[in-house]
Amino acid sequence: MPQAIEPQMNNVLRESDAYRGRNTSMGALIEEADRIFDALAAGHSREDVKQRCLSGDVLRQRTEKSRRRIWASIQHRYFAHEVLWVIDDIVSAKRDDRKAFLDLLYLHYCLRDKLAFDVVTRLIWDAGISVRGVIVPHDVRHLLDDATTDQPLISRWSESTRAKLANSVLTALRDFGLLEGKIRKQVAGRTISIDAAEHLVRLLVSEGQRGRNIITDPTWHLFLMSDRDVSAKLSILASQNRLRFEKTGSTVVLETPSEWEGSS
């Protein structure tokens, strides 16, 4: 029986610059991630959860091949980097805060899928679709066409493959709450919980970002947040003594817990 190949472990939280169909075509997988993280939150080891997924105890798909494909995709998104604090944050959110849990699933889905990241940050945010309010599969296919110069492998993809990827990424973004609708998807907007915002700040710090660069990082655009929105969220975190944040004009003071340094 053909088996899905699990990605090699690494400590890189973001996917490379290349678009890949493997993760995109699988969709949001929220129900499946729910089951897996529910088992982890109950105290089961990851290896035990994996075996229970493949046996059909946690994942309920009818064939082992399907269960292996889903596990490989979940593994790629949420575990392959082996950054333990990231995994722990998602498990804790599963126990304590449904909104934060879904925010973290969405965040790391986009970070581990460059196409999804670019659809949100380049199409929906930069190209003004968030203002226009509507995005269709043709918009994503145009993004793929534009990327062929830097990524010639895309030119080998069939039209049906491109169409499937375009539909899959938009459906996933709808399932994660960013979009709504069927064919012509409307931008629904997506707020970020305070715990997920703290997680994202720590992630950016672990990547070497500091001060104003944290505020202007495009990762916030996944939640359709302007620099002002980010500053407001940082102010809330500061009011809860999770970090220190002051902003006067272009001057930014942002101090985070020392244990965040080099935590990737």
Q: How would you characterize this protein structure?
A:
There is one protein chain. This protein is mainly alpha-helical and 264 residues long. Among the domains are: 21-97, no CATH class; 194-260, Orthogonal Bundle (Arc Repressor Mutant, subunit A). It contains 13 helices and 5 strands. The protein has helices at residues 21-24, 30-41, 46-55, 64-78, 84-96, 98-111, 114-126, 129-132, 137-147, 159-175, 194-206, 212-216, 227-239, and strands at residues 134-135, 179-180, 185-187, 244-248, 251-255. The strands form 2 sheets. Strands 1-3-2 form a 3-stranded antiparallel beta sheet. It has a two-stranded antiparallel ribbon with strand order 4-5. α3 (46-55) packs antiparallel against α4 and α5 runs antiparallel to α6 (98-111). The longest helix is centred in the middle third of the chain and has 17 residues, at 159-175.
